[in-house]
Design a protein that fits this description.
Elements (H helix, E strand, L loop, with lengths): L13 H30 L1 H10 L8 H45 L2 H56 L3 H4 L10 H14 L16 H22 L3 E3 L2 E3 L2 H21 L2 H24 L1 H6 L3 H39 L2 H12 L5 H23 L1 H26 L13 E9 L5 E10 L35 H11 L8 E10 L13 E11 L2 H22 L5 E4 L11 E8 L5 E11 L1 H6 L2 E3 L5 E3 L1 E8 L1 H10 L16 E5 L4 H20 L4 E3 L7 H10 L4 E5 L1 H5 L2 E6 L4 E5 L3 H26 L1 E3 L3 H9 L4 E6 L3 H11 L2 E6 L21 E6 L3
Parallel strand pairs: 13-14, 13-15, 18-19
Antiparallel strand pairs: 1-2, 3-4, 5-6, 6-12, 7-8, 7-20, 8-9, 9-12, 10-11, 15-16, 16-17, 19-21, 20-21
Helix pairs in contact: 1-2, 1-3, 2-14, 3-4, 3-7, 3-13, 4-6, 6-14, 7-13, 8-11, 8-12, 8-13, 9-11, 9-14, 12-13
């Protein structure tokens, strides 16, 4: 062999060659990985479960970014493998150069010595470059991997949380046959484990691609392929007992790892369910502890410590029993892998040493052989060593898939069918009530309750979950009274005797109380102020005219005063007021594209008159029941006004309703300037008030002008006038609009300018709101377009409606959208829809759907 040192590869071409190698390896790895993943998703149980949980993240237009991110991560893995290959050649060169230097020194051959020294120091320089690139790659890899995991976790958490809440699955899932445990843990913890993909533990900030099962596997396979060529090149023949094995190092290494992996898989397979049960039993024990904490008062009151202790012991015993089996299996698995990893160190040196001593290879070749053998062994052993990590990750798939399945089964459970009743308030048909455990509380029940009927429901103690707090008694009784029909119609029966008493029209402002589980300011509160009217008429036509008249008045107030455009129309049977013949409503669209019912007007027919026996003597001398209407608006309109016009700077009040239409803010620095601008401000205020405007003059000296501007803007005052010394010198004032825009106006024409500005603001607010409503409305949409629209930006969706209550209920269950109104003619589409947007049956009317407050 030539004693002069030569490099193992041409380092001058290493950059170019590496770029070509990386590009080819990336393309091959991408295609092969995609094929394998598709096969796993189609032909394995856990692959199908994985796709069911998160497949939507990797499909659709939004997934382009996801795939680009995965491509970048794969590139990082391929670059890392290439660096490892280059490190092996650098190590070979460094060791071989040192050997040449030592040989030259011992033999007195200066040329060999110098070639070795030059090669050694050059190798150190190459190492510095490779190490720098390696560190940079690892840091970038860490950043990209963590951002990918976080983005995936955010998406999946939103998806599974929404799925859990949709259709009341969080509640209905308690009644399925295979009830799942701790859905909260599955959403919080298992999603973290699932998206991290490193094993049974949640993500930590130091996980890179090499820690994950997917990219770790790709790294292992690419490493095996890359170092196989090196090991094949360095392997020599081995003769034992007269039999020669060509490329012995290569074949021995593969056979060794294959045998070790088969045994490891056999030992580790039970760990999947042991890991799953470990999480399951621990979660059940933790839930028992939380339950005890939440029920502490009741347990203490009933001296239930002994029973709770027994319950906790029963929950903890499976934890211990399962964990013992887990430990025993893990000891076998770990012991086998650890033994294999120690034994594997010897073969490269034992097999290559004779060739080294015979001068067939250099010392660097031996070290590179050990490096290549180690990388191949590590790559082939990845699947063996990572089996326990896969078992833990696989368990998270099982738990999340169980949650998704439980949600679907919960939504599929039978539910009560609720339909409006024309002639009574409550009617039950074959209704049965059971506990979550299946115990029957109420046998199949048929019941009819008319207005004025009462019913007492009793049951044995402990059948329900209601507890009475003895300290919560009210000083005065609180009557839950949603509306006033029961009070007013009882009086109508006394007041109305003859047709001469009709029509009888009553209007009142009062507070009512409703049972709201979750209140929302101005929109849904337990007690609120509202206006309600009740009327009685001689016939249906007169009642219908009254109901439509009031609806028109509500619309006029909403649009002309509140600058809030509304749709008018009739409610469906399921959405109308209980006991009404027809319910009309005004519906507005808020800036978040949710609808709000601004007011309702009901033609009650004769239902309430019959219930309360409200009759009148006709002109012919007979007795007839009256025809009633009722109608109302509430402080909900304030919420509608705020959400229609306001912005991030505060309230935007339409001029016609603004308590203060104009705020005058004088600006001064000296007392003399204050006296001057205050005098002019007072005169402007007087002029504006003479014109019928509501004006405030802000002479506070504890706030700077900027703070005053901010306060009046937050209060929604439509117009602000600024008067400073320079403005007076120019014979002008500065007019600022709350809706945007600011400029000077002549002082002498201030009243005309302000009046004009207020009219323009009122009109522009209405026009902007109407334009926004139409921009966020769709007409003639298909079912798919409707679902995408409602679950996307939202708004008013116009479409055909078959009139079926079941169809309407299904839409509400799947999209949380309800029919706001069957619109009046002026709001309908130019061409009437022919089929139902949802089920395809013939359409009986056009409907407007939206999600609503």
């Amino acid at each position: 062999m030539n004693d002069l040192f030569t490099f193992s590869i041409d380092w001058g071409r290493a950059l170019f060659d590496s770029a070509i190698w990386i590009a080819r390896a990336w393309a091959i790895a991408a295609v092969c990985t995609l094929v394998v993943l598709v096969l796993i998703a189609r032909h394995t149980t856990w692959g199908r479960q994985f796709w069911r949980i998160t497949g939507a993240y990797f499909t659709g237009p939004h997934s382009v970014k996801v795939w680009l991110w995965l491509a970048a991560l794969l590139l990082s893995v391929i670059v890392g493998v290439r660096l490892n290959v280059l490190f092996s050649y650098q190590g070979n060169d460094m060791m071989s150069a040192a050997q040449a230097a030592f040989t030259g020194t011992g033999a007195g051959d200066e040329a060999v010595k110098q070639s070795g020294k030059h090669g050694f120091y050059t190798s150190l320089g190459i190492f510095s470059i490779l190490a720098t690139v390696h560190v940079a790659r690892v840091m970038l890899d860490l950043f990209m991997m963590q951002r990918f995991m976080l983005a995936w976790r955010v998406w999946l958490t939103d998806r599974l949380t929404g799925d859990w809440l949709t259709g009341q699955a969080y509640y209905r899932g308690r009644f399925i046959d295979e009830r799942i445990d701790n859905p909260d843990q599955r959403i919080q913890s298992d999603i973290d484990i699932f998206t991290a993909g490193v094993g049974s533990l949640p993500n930590t900030p130091n996980n890179t691609t090499g820690n994950t099962l997917l990219f770790g596997a790709i790294d292992a396979v690419v490493s095996v392929i890359s170092f196989t060529a090196i090991l094949w090149h360095l392997s020599g023949n081995l003769t034992l007992f007269g039999v020669t094995m060509p490329r012995a190092m290569f074949w021995i290494g593969f056979a060794y790892v294959l045998l070790a992996s088969i045994v490891a898989f056999w030992i580790g397979r039970p760990m999947i369910w042991l890991s799953f049960n470990n999480e399951k039993y621990n979660a059940a024990f933790r839930y028992a502890l939380v339950r005890l904490r939440d029920a502490a008062e009741s347990v203490a009151f009933y001296r239930g410590e002994a029973a709770e202790r027994l319950q906790l012991d029963r929950r903890f015993q499976p934890v211990v029993s399962n964990y013992k089996r887990y430990i025993n299996r893990m000891l076998r698995f770990f012991g086998w892998n650890f033994s294999i990893s120690q034994i594997i160190v010897l073969p490269p040196w034992l097999i290559q040493a004779p060739r080294l001593f015979a001068g067939q290879i250099k010392f660097g070749d031996v070290t590179q052989t050990a490096t290549a053998f180690g990388n191949i062994q590590a790559g082939l052993s990845f699947f063996r060593n990572a089996y326990d990590s896969f078992a833990g990750w696989r368990a998270s798939i099982i738990r999340l898939h169980g949650l998704v399945t439980a949600n679907e089964e919960g939504r599929a459970l039978p539910s009560l069918t609720v339909t409006p009743s024309r002639d009574c308030l409550v009617e039950l048909d074959d209704v049965e009530v059971r506990t979550p455990a299946g115990e029957q509380l109420i046998r199949p029940l048929d019941l009819r309750l008319n207005l004025g009927d009462t019913l007492i429901i009793t049951g044995k103690s402990g059948a329900g979950g209601i507890e009475v707090d003895p300290t919560s008694a009210l000083e005065e009784p609180l009557v839950v009274r949603p509306t006033s029909e029961t009070i007013i119609y009882a009086m109508f029966a006394k007041w109305i005797q003859s047709y001469r008493d009709l029509p009888l029209l009553l209007n009142q402002w009062c507070n009512v109380v409703r049972w709201e589980l979750r209140t929302r300011l101005f929109l849904r509160t337990t007690e609120f102020l509202w206006q309600e009217g009740h009327t009685a008429h001689v016939d249906e036509a007169d009642a219908e005219r009254e109901a439509r008249l009031i609806l028109g008045l509500y619309r006029r107030f909403a649009e002309e005063w509140m600058a809030m455009p509304v749709l008018t129309g009739v409610k469906t049977e399921s959405e109308k007021f209980a006991g009404a013949l027809r319910t009309y409503a005004i519906e507005a669209l808020m800036q978040d594209n949710k609808a709000i019912q601004g007011g309702t007007s009901h033609n009650l027919g004769q239902n309430f008159a019959k219930a309360f026996d409200v009759k009148y003597q006709t002109a012919a001398g007979g007795l007839e029941h009256v025809w009633n209407t009722s109608w109302g608006v509430s402080t909900r309109l304030i919420g509608g006004l705020i959400m229609t016009h306001s912005d991030d700077n505060g309230l935007v009040a339409p001029p016609k309703l603004a308590p203060v239409q104009v705020a005058i803010v004088p600006i001064w620095k000296t007392d003399e300037e204050k006296q001057q601008v205050s005098g002019v401000g007072s005169q402007v205020k007087a002029d504006l008030e003479k014109a019928g405007l509501r004006v405030e003059l802000d002479l506070r000296d504890t706030m700077k002008p900027g703070a005053k501007y901010f306060e009046w803007e937050a209060l929604g005052v439509p117009v602000r006038l600024e008067i400073g010394p320079r403005d007076l010198a120019s014979g002008q004032v500065i007019l600022a609009r709350r809706t945007g825009g600011k400029g000077p106006v002549p002082l002498q024409r201030a009243t005309d300018s302000v009046t004009k500005a207020l009219d323009e603001i009122q009109a522009s607010l209405f026009a902007a709101a109407r334009e926004r409503r139409e921009k966020n409305s769709i007409r003639g949409a298909t079912k798919t377009q409707f679902i995408e629209f409602i679950k996307g930006s939202g708004g008013f969706a116009y479409g055909g409606f078959c009139g079926g209550a079941s169809c309407e209920a299904e839409i509400k269950q799947q999209t949380n959208a309800t029919i706001r109104v069957l619109p009046d003619p002026e709001f309908r589409s130019p061409e009437a829809p022919k089929t139902c947007m949802w089920c395809g049956k013939p359409s009986v009317a056009e409907a407007v759907w939206a999600q609503a407050y």
